[in-house]
C-alpha cells in the first residue's frame, strides 16, 4: 500500500486515523496544522462516533451517518461495528438496509462497489481493471430484482451488496480490500423507479433470457481471469434466476446463493437447536414451509441431506417436509408445480393452510413469504394445540414483512413458542418470563463460509459445507441463551461462530479433495491469523 501524506492521507478511508495520528506521525506525514491538538485513541473516537450516531432521530439517518463514517475512516467504522454489533448490525443491514435500498438514489453520496450494465457487454474484463484492489476474494453480486421482501429495486439493490460486504468484514474477519460489491444493472421493471428523476440505474425494462444470461456468463468468466481466488455470492435474485444461476455455475466456479443456501443453513441450525428444548429427535420432526420461493425451497433441499445424514432414506426424508402456498397444501393432484417442489408434493386432499396444520401436525413452521401477518393468531394457536413447544420461524425481511412478531408468537402460545425471525425483535416479558428471541440471520453462516473458502482455497462450494456450518452454529448456542428462548448464539459472539465454521469448512474441503494441499495441521490458529482486526 502506498503511504500517502497530508490531506491525501486524511482523505483515504483505509489509511486515515484522523485524531489518532501520533505527534511523530503528524510530523512524518505532513499532518501538522491539519488536525486538532489532542491525540485520541480509537476507543475515544468510538465514543464520539456512537454519541453522534445515537443523536440521530431515525434509522435511515443512522444508516447515512455510518456510511459516511465508513467513507472517512474504515478502521474506526469496523472497530465500532464489531464492538457494538447488536446495535449497529440492524442499521448496516436488515431491517434498515431495506429502507436504504428504497431510498438509495436519493441518499447517494459516494460510489462504493462496481456497476455492470448491458453497455459493458464485451468489455467487462477490461473495465474490471478499473477496480483499485487486486486481491479480491469475496464478490457479492445482485441484480436487484428481489430485494428482501421489497421486490424489484433495480440499481438501488447495490445497498444489499454493500451491506453484505460489510458483514463479511465485521462478522467474518475478511479484509475490506478483499471484498467487492457488484451491481448487475440490467434495468428494472419498476415503473416508479424508471420515472424517478434521481434514479441512478438503467431506466429500461430488464434484460431477460439469452441477453441476460450471456452478460452474467461474461462476468463470471472475467472474474476467473481477473480475480481467480474470488468467491461469488449471488444475492437477491428473482427465485427462478437464483436457482438457474446456481445450477449453471456451482460445479464450475466457487459460488453460492445466500438466499438459497445461507438461509437454509441458518434455518437448519435453528431446528437442530430447537430439538434441545423440545426433546424431540431430529429425525422425527415434520417441517412445514409457507412459501415456495428460493428461500423455502433451499431450506427443503438442504433438509434432505440433513435427514439422510441422520439415518433416514431420501424418500422418507421428503415425506417429512410439506409446502403450503396461496392455494393451500401442495399436493400431488395439482396440475402445475414449480419444478423443484414437485417431489415434495403430498398424496393428500387439497386443504387450506390452517387445515394443513390440522392434518399434518408439523413440529416446525417456517415462513418465507414476504407477507406480513401470514402467521395469524389461528395459525399459531393451531401449532400450539399439537405441540407443547411449537417451533415458529418467521424469516421474511424487513421487519414490516415478517410473518408474525415475537410478541404475537409468545402471546398466542402462552409463552410456549420457540421463536426465531429473519429481522431482530426486542426482548419481551410475558408474566414472570423474559424472552430474548433469536434472529435467524444469514450473517451467522455466509461470513464463516467465505472465510473457510478463502482459508482452504476450496475450488468449489458444496452442500456438505452448509450442513457442517449449520451443525457448528447449533453447537455454539449456550444453555443460558436457550433458557431465554434463543436458538442462535448472541451476535456478540458471531466472529467466534465464523471462525468455528471456517475451520470446519477447511476440514470438509480437505475431505472432499477441494482444498489446497498445503493447509497447516493447526487449522484453528491458521484461520484465526487470517481474520482482520481493525485497529491502529
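Sequence proposed for the structure above (536 residues):
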Amino acid at each position: 500500500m502506498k503511504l500517502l501524506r497530508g490531506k491525501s492521507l486524511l482523505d483515504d478511508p483505509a489509511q486515515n486515523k484522523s485524531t489518532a495520528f501520533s505527534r511523530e506521525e503528524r510530523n512524518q506525514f505532513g499532518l501538522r496544522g491539519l488536525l486538532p491538538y489532542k491525540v485520541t485513541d480509537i476507543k475515544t473516537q468510538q465514543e464520539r462516533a456512537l454519541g453522534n450516531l445515537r443523536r440521530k432521530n431515525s434509522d435511515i439517518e443512522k444508516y447515512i451517518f455510518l456510511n459516511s463514517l465508513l467513507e472517512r475512516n474504515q478502521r474506526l467504522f469496523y472497530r465500532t461495528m464489531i464492538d457494538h454489533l447488536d446495535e449497529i448490525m440492524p442499521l448496516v443491514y436488515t431491517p434498515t438496509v431495506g429502507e436504504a435500498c428504497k431510498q438509495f438514489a436519493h441518499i447517494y453520496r459516494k460510489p462504493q462497489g462496481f456497476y455492470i450494465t448491458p453497455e459493458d457487454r464485451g468489455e467487462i474484463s477490461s473495465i474490471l481493471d478499473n477496480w483499485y484492489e487486486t486481491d479480491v476474494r469475496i464478490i457479492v453480486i445482485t441484480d436487484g430484482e428481489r430485494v428482501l421482501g421489497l421486490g424489484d429495486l433495480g440499481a438501488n439493490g447495490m445497498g444489499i451488496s454493500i451491506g453484505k460486504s460489510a458483514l463479511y468484514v465485521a462478522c467474518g474477519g475478511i479484509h475490506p480490500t478483499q471484498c467487492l460489491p457488484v451491481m448487475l444493472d440490467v434495468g428494472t421493471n419498476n415503473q416508479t423507479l424508471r420515472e424517478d428523476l434521481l434514479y441512478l440505474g438503467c431506466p429500461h425494462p430488464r434484460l431477460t433470457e439469452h441477453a441476460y444470461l450471456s452478460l452474467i456468463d461474461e462476468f463470471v468468466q472475467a472474474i476467473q481471469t481477473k480475480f481467480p481466488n474470488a468467491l461469488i455470492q449471488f444475492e437477491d435474485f428473482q427465485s427462478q434466476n437464483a436457482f438457474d444461476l446456481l445450477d449453471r455455475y456451482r460445479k464450475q466456479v466457487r459460488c453460492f446463493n445466500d438466499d438459497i443456501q445461507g438461509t437454509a443453513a441458518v434455518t437448519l441450525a435453528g431446528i437442530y437447536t430447537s430439538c434441545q428444548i423440545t426433546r424431540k429427535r431430529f429425525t422425527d420432526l415434520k417441517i412445514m414451509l409457507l412459501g415456495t420461493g428460493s428461500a423455502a425451497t433451499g431450506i427443503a433441499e438442504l433438509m434432505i441431506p440433513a435427514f439422510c445424514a441422520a439415518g433416514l432414506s431420501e424418500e422418507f426424508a421428503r415425506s417429512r417436509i410439506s409446502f403450503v402456498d396461496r392455494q393451500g397444501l401442495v399436493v400431488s393432484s395439482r396440475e402445475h408445480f414449480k419444478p423443484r417442489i414437485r417431489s415434495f408434493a403430498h398424496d393428500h386432499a387439497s386443504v387450506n393452510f390452517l387445515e394443513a396444520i390440522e392434518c399434518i401436525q408439523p413440529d416446525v413452521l417456517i415462513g418465507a413469504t414476504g407477507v406480513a401477518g401470514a402467521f395469524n393468531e389461528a395459525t399459531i394457536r393451531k401449532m400450539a394445540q399439537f405441540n407443547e413447544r411449537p417451533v415458529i420461524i418467521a424469516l421474511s425481511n424487513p421487519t414490516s414483512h415478517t410473518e408474525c412478531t415475537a410478541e404475537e408468537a409468545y402471546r398466542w402460545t402462552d409463552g410456549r413458542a420457540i421463536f426465531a425471525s429473519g429481522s431482530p425483535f426486542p426482548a419481551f416479558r410475558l408474566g414472570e418470563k423474559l424472552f430474548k428471541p433469536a434472529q435467524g440471520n444469514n450473517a451467522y453462516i455466509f461470513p464463516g463460509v467465505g472465510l473457510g473458502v478463502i482459508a482452504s482455497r476450496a475450488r468449489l462450494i458444496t452442500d456438505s459445507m452448509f450442513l457442517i456450518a449449520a451443525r457448528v452454529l447449533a453447537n455454539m448456542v449456550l444453555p443460558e441463551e436457550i433458557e431465554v428462548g434463543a436458538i442462535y448464539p448472541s451476535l456478540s459472539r458471531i466472529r467466534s461462530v465464523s471462525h468455528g465454521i471456517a475451520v470446519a469448512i477447511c476440514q470438509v474441503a480437505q475431505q472432499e479433495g477441494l482444498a489446497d494441499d498445503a493447509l497447516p495441521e493447526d487449522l484453528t490458529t491458521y484461520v484465526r491469523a487470517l481474520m482482520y482486526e481493525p485497529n491502529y
